[in-house]
Amino acid sequence: MRIDIITVLPEMIEGFFNCSIMKRAQDKGLAEIHIHNLRDYTEDKYRRVDDYPFGGFAGMVMKIEPIERCINALKAERDYDEVIFTTPDGEQFNQPMANSLSLAQNLIILCGHFKGIDYRILITKEISIGDYVLTGGELAAAVMADAIVRIIPGVISDEQSALSDSFQDNLLAAPVYTRPADYKGWKVPDILLSGHEAKIKEWELQQSLERTKKLRPDLLED
Ligand code: ADE
């Protein structure tokens, strides 16, 4: 899959995609991440990407011309499944959305700034990563791309681990433990050392339900 991220602050996210699992996914050819500097698509001396809003509203608006030029240049090369705009006003990003976007071939993510974009720009999805306002959409784009790329088959070596994540079945994951089995008298639950697979599965489900009931009861309402 390919993700094209359009931003006025490429340096803010370049490092993120150049390390750990995101880098490995690209090195293995499982994901291509391309970051585009929106200012490269301006044509004026000052490389302006924003302007005053019509109507006398406060704040600045992302101009249509550089965004359209950038998106058209990308679309001239290939078809895109979605053109996503990151905004706190958008639909809330969640695991089912990440799952479905990970099936896409090509995605554009436009990082929002200022008061938003000129509304004539053709966006297919407006997505928020939560009910709080960030200084710009770059972190939101990085969060979404990370959640989408990590579930592409082969990106995480132990595929089962992506499938057993919290939220994959609307339940939080069960707690996990590692060695030592007894640390200063704090013991790992006996069942996990029993080797009894069926009983361990049963324990895992029960723990998932308990943790979800306690921490995220809203997930159980579905
Ligand atoms: N830009 C600013 N805040 C945001 C948010 N919560 N989600 C997505 N984009 C944003």
Written description of the protein model:
With 222 residues, this protein is an alpha/beta fold. Helices cover 36% and strands 18% of the residues. It has helices at residues 10-17, 20-27, 64-75, 95-101, 138-149, 159-163, 190-193, 197-215, 217-220; strands at residues 2-7, 32-37, 50-51, 61-62, 82-92, 106-111, 125-128, 182-183, 186-187. The strands form three sheets. It has a five-stranded parallel sheet with strand order 2-1-6-5-7, with helices on both faces. 22% of the residues are buried. The model has no long low-confidence stretch (mean pLDDT 96). Adenine (ADE) binds next to β5.
**SS element count, helices:** 9
Distance between the termini: 31 Å
Q: State the shape.
A: elongated
Radius of gyration: 22 Å
Uncertain regions spanning at least 5 consecutive residues: none
Element pattern in H and E: EHHEEEHEHEEHHEEHHH
Give a quick account of the main beta sheet: strands, pairing sense, barrel closure: 5 strands, parallel
**What's the helical proportion of residues?**
25-40%
What average pLDDT do the residues reach? 96
Percent of residues in beta strands:
15-25%
Number of beta strands = 9
Structural class: alpha/beta
List the helices and strands and how they pair.
Blueprint: E1 2-7, H1 10-17, H2 20-27, E2 32-37, E3 50-51, E4 61-62, H3 64-75, E5 82-92, H4 95-101, E6 106-111, E7 125-128, H5 138-149, H6 159-163, E8 182-183, E9 186-187, H7 190-193, H8 197-215, H9 217-220
The structure holds adenine (ADE).
Residues 86-88, 112, 128-130, 132-134, 137, 140 line the site of adenine.
